[in-house]
Amino acid sequence: MPPNSPDSPPICEEKKPKSPPKYAELDENNNAEKDIPIVDVERQIQVVDDSTQQWLILRKDIKWLNVIAITLLHLMALYGLLTVSYSQHKRTMTWAFVIVIFTGFGVTGGAHRLWTHRSYKANARMRVLLMICFITAGMNNLYHWVRDHRVHHKYSETDADPHNSRRGFFFSHVGWLMLKKHPDVKAKGQSIDMSDIVNDPVVAFCDRHNLLLRILTTLFTIGVPVYCWNEDWYHSFAFQLFRYVYDLNATWSVNSLAHIYGDKPYNRKIDPVENRLVSWLTFGEGWHNYHHTFPWDYRAAEIGGGRFNLTARVIEWFAGLGWASDLREPSPALVRRTIAHRGDGTHPCVLRQSSSTAGGGSSVADDVLDNLESAIGKSHFF
């Protein structure tokens, strides 16, 4: 009998097993009772177990006292911000703004550009002034601030970076203060040369009397409005609390915003970026792609082109008084070559004539910059 004749028995076809449908199918009564996919319960349990284990590991590293203190500090500042009457306390509000400038210069011009990067020299009078400005800001003690920032520059965006931005925005902004330090941060911190800071008598005095100085500067900033124009203690405290929280978040924004959101006109191979908002908040610290490319520059940015940099102008003013000297900066030629061969093409003056110029992986400029970076790693300028 021919195999395909009408009377021949049907050939058995191999039936392939159906794969579970993505969604359940409806029967004629519109009930989702057929072909319900099997849920991978074991995998879901494994995911839950992994998440629980990660939380248990993280919980051991949380510094709960810091979490509570930082949270309460921000809640109190928010309450004061929403309840104080600004129109009736203009002088006290102006005083708080003056202190913001005062403390901002202590952090940016003192702890950062002078003591961390040694980008200029300051005489004893200026160092004392910068120390007072810094201590009024209420940051960590000066020695630890400088050490952590030097580690940050030398091991940026690694586990040794105290506020590694690759661990997320929240961690780089404030979360790093709520957790115990990564072991690499501690190990690399011990390898940083801090001899210049240890031998600075102004820094030694600041750290030796840190608590007392912080109490005195706090009483001074709150007491001036009370005794000079009869402000009440509540509003004087509220404005200084808001000022303090602003100082903290402005400084933290350099670690978070200026490492995540912005352009890289000077070095596209690193994470730090140019962020105009951060520059306004910190009086010139937001030009961070430039700063990490040329960390020894006292300006921490190019001057001009609408780049706000109050700290650089104040340093120059003190240089005119003879209090600051040896202001360091890279040559304009080196900056231009770096822009052309290392930048991402967003600098206003960059002119790329060919794709080979844009790459520049084996260019002389790359070699020059590599040599400079190597030299910086062996110096106090980081």
UniProtKB/TrEMBL annotation:
Q: Give the cofactors, semicolon-separated.
A: Fe(2+)
Q: Which UniProt keywords apply?
A: Fatty acid biosynthesis, Fatty acid metabolism, Iron, Lipid biosynthesis, Lipid metabolism, Membrane, Oxidoreductase, Transmembrane, Transmembrane helix
Q: Mind naming one GO cellular-component term on file for this protein?
A: endoplasmic reticulum membrane
| Transmembrane segments annotated in the record for this chain | 64-82, 94-116, 128-146
Task: Write down the superkingdom of origin.
Answer: Eukaryota
Query: Domain Fatty acid desaturase spans what residues?
Result: 95-295
Q: Where in the cell is it found?
A: Membrane
Tell me the CDD domains matching this sequence: Delta9-FADS-like (cd03505)
Pfam families the UniProt entry points to: FA_desaturase
Membrane topology summary: Multi-pass membrane protein
Q: Does the keyword Chloroplast apply?
A: no
Output one GO BP term: unsaturated fatty acid biosynthetic process
Which family does the UniProt entry place this protein in? Belongs to the fatty acid desaturase type 1 family.
**Record remark on domains:** The histidine box domains are involved in binding the catalytic metal ions.
Name of the molecule in the record: Fatty acid desaturase domain-containing protein
What organism does the UniProt record list as the source?
Trichogramma brassicae
